[in-house]
Amino acid sequence: MERHEIEAVLAVAEELHFRRATERLGLAQGRVSQTVKALERRLGVVLFERTSRRVALTPAGRRLYEGLAPAYRQIQEVTAQAVTIGKGITGTLRVGFSSQWASDMVLKTAKLFRRAYPDCAVELEEVQLRDTFGPLRSGELDLQLTEFPVDEPDLVAGPVIFSEPRALLVPEQHPFARCGSVCMEDLARTPLIVISGDSPQYWRDSIYPRTTPQGRPITHAASAVYWAEVLSMVASGLGVSPVALRAARYHARPGIAFVPLSDAPPLEYGLIWRCDGDTARVRAFVQTLCRTTSDRPR
């Protein structure tokens, strides 16, 4: 099989959509479909079942994908290692994260990165929300996976890696705790606990709004410096606080409840780095992280 045939099969198997596979590979419209059809004719087997509504792997296609994917990744890793030696991707890369779920993704990526670039160490550090960009700007970090939006002249806002539904962290005895969900207008009915600090106002407003969509004021009654304080203050009945819904899996404890915010936009998490810090190490880690979120069959 030629390289372009392998890449076409892998892209379609992982996207289960010919147009998305074509866009992913940066090819002209219809090119991936033509490549797969030609390969199927040459092999004498059907690799994908196609209808007007869906694309699915046949048993033969599944077996081919399962054999090709790890071999192709190994070729990519060996090639990357050779490029690393040539380009000098060595030293230490310092990566920050702002939440436990972001930490999980960074840790997974760091493991793959070390395998591909054995001469480059990776150090990880949690970033406190009270100073979202401080460690990056000071040079303490080279790269960061954090909540968006980010609109800073000295920072590059890279790709959005994943998004999370929002929820409201409330005291266990709060009336909201008995609801299946709440809406943004409900924030006007209860005091909000926020993280204080030096983060830009636009960023803080995206996490802790000051008005509801209909313009009703939202009371910011108390502030905390660290996330652990927010948990304790909410459990004590001092207020509620917006969070990612996934926080319930990491921070559940007596005295609090997590209630979905039904009409809130999702929290987006993306990569950021300094404009003057666009190094080969940073680019390699960004590519590795993006690959970990895209090379699984959907």
Walk me through the topology.
Layout lengths: L2 H13 L2 H8 L5 H13 L4 E3 L4 E3 L1 H29 L3 E7 L2 H17 L3 E7 L7 H4 L5 E5 L7 E10 L1 E6 L20 E4 L5 H7 L12 E5 L2 H9 L5 E4 L2 H5 L4 E5 L6 E8 L5 H13 L6
Helix pairs in contact: 1-2, 1-3, 1-4, 5-10
Task: Give your account of this protein's structure.
With 298 residues, the chain is of the alpha/beta class. The protein folds into three domains: 3-85, Winged helix-like DNA-binding domain superfamily/Winged helix DNA-binding domain (Arc Repressor Mutant, subunit A, Orthogonal Bundle); 88-163 and 268-292, D-Maltodextrin-Binding Protein, domain 2, CATH 3.40.190.10; 166-265, D-Maltodextrin-Binding Protein, domain 2, CATH 3.40.190.10. The protein is 40% helix and 22% strand. The chain has helices at 3-15, 18-25, 31-43, 59-87, 100-116, 134-137, 201-207, 227-235, 247-251, 280-292; strands at 48-50, 55-57, 91-97, 120-126, 143-147, 155-164, 166-171, 192-195, 220-224, 241-244, 256-260, 267-274. Helix 5 (100-116) links the parallel strand 3 (91-97) and strand 4 (120-126). Helix 1 packs across helix 4 (59-87). The model has no long low-confidence stretch (mean pLDDT 90). Belongs to the LysR transcriptional regulatory family. InterPro entries: LysR_HTH_N, LysR_subst-bd, WH-like_DNA-bd_sf, WH_DNA-bd_sf.
